Amino acid sequence: MRMNNTTRSDAPARSDAAIADAMRDLEERVCDLMNMSSIAADMILLAFDQPDSRDSSGMLVYRLSHSRRENLEFAVTDVENRAKSLKKAYLSACEGKVL
After folding, report:
1. What is the signed CA dihedral for 55, 51, 42, 66, rounded to 10 degrees?
2. Residue 67 predicted with pLDDT over 90
3. Confidence of residue 53 (pLDDT cuts 50, 70, 90)
């Protein structure tokens, strides 16, 4: 029986060793993301631990300094950026490539 060459992929073959090496390269990014997410969670829990008051409709009121708000925004955005970067690196590592 004759094989049809049009069904064969022209993509380079991924070796298990290359994929394993690329995955091992992700360790630092994974650990950094875990550490930063822990820092962000601590900051959020501390900032919203106890409300300052309730408004007339019963909604909780929290007061944050400008710098605390900026730090919270930075921490959460940093976690988001690290997660997006890690996803790209993971998908690349699945192909045996290191970003």
Report:
1. 60
2. yes
3. very high
